[in-house]
Write a sequence for this structure.
């Protein structure tokens, strides 16, 4: 029998990309001879991260449609047509057994062409409020793997399967010793450690907040691992001290989670799934600059289960210190940790690949 051939399209942000890589890794575990091809958007995070993970990728010349007036929108029809044509070429040359979309700019044209050519397709929706691309694709795909319940108002109920979000295999393994992880970052293994995550691209408002609160953290005897993003690293690396570690990006997320006692983070779906799995108490600051305000929906899905604290970006000046103070209370940390672990779905990747097998 010929090896299975699978195309996976997902990227633009880590929230779309890391689930896609996790799915590819599980497929390779089951079918070592399978040919896996990624399709992403040129110039986006996937074009470097996918080859680093050991997979081939082809890029499409595609961006999202800007909701505000933008010169970029003039190019959008041309980019879309170009991407549809290239997607058609990819499909006809590669001839996959199945096509999987996890969201992102490239996912739309590729899955549209795959459906038009009658290839079996599956989409994986990470968020509690689905993006427009997956909503448009939903009527044509075979299966829809979702991370949150009650999405019948967006998707055909007969196609929905509640799986949870895939998380990276390294994080699914037993986390390293916390003290040793702190020492790896050259921090005091006995001090409480705050980890700050702004998403794969960094978060300007969170970086501004942390920079303004360094004395506040120092007064609380808290050390900080601050992942500020490559775009902002040059601006903030000068603030590094023995208690404040500033990083553009941290690759060893298992070590980072292990070193953390609590976390401040955006509420992208991939990060939240990892926080659920590792059970870390978290204060979430949803990005207001995302489609459909899905990060706030994600954050409130946890907050409503008493699984995370949430502060809207617009309320940081008034509310941050008081909410963070509550995060320092041992009873609050224990409660958040217990409740967030209840939301973890460690079998998500396995269940999604089971679904892919069903539609081969």
């Amino acid at each position: 029998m010929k090896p299975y051939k699978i195309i996976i399209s997902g990227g633009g942000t880590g929230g779309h990309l890391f689930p896609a890589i996790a799915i590819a890794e599980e497929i390779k575990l089951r079918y070592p001879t399978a040919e896996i091809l990624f399709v992403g958007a040129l110039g986006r995070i996937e074009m470097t991260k996918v080859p680093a993970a050991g997979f081939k990728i082809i890029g499409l010349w595609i961006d999202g449609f800007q909701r505000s007036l933008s010169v970029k929108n003039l190019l959008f029809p041309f980019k879309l047509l170009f991407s549809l044509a290239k997607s058609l070429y990819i499909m006809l040359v590669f001839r996959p057994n199945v096509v999987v979309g996890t969201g992102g700019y490239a996912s739309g044209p590729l899955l549209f062409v795959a459906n038009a050519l009658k290839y079996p397709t599956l989409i994986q929706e990470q968020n509690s409020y689905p993006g427009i691309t997956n909503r448009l694709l939903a009527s044509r795909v075979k299966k829809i793997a979702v991370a949150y319940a009650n999405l019948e108002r967006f998707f055909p109920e007969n196609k929905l399967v509640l799986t949870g979000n895939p998380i990276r295999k390294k994080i699914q393994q037993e986390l390293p010793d916390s003290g040793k992880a702190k020492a790896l970052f050259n921090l005091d293994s006995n001090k409480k450690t705050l980890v700050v995550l702004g998403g794969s691209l960094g978060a300007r408002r969170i970086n501004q907040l942390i920079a303004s609160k360094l004395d506040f953290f120092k007064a609380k005897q808290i050390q900080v691992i601050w992942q500020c993003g490559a775009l902002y690293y040059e601006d903030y690396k000068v603030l590094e001290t023995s208690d404040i570690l500033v990083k553009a990006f941290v690759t060893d997320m298992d070590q980072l989670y292990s070193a953390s006692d609590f976390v401040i983070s955006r509420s992208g779906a991939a990060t939240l799934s990892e926080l659920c799995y590792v059970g870390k108490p978290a204060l979430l600051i949803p990005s207001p600059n995302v489609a459909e305000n899905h990060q706030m929906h994600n954050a409130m899905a946890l907050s409503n289960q008493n699984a995370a604290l949430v502060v809207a970006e617009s309320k940081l000046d008034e509310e941050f210190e008081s909410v963070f103070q509550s995060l320092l209370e041992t009873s609050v940390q224990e409660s958040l940790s217990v409740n967030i672990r209840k939301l973890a779905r460690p079998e998500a990747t396995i269940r999604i690949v089971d679904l892919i097998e069903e539609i081969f």
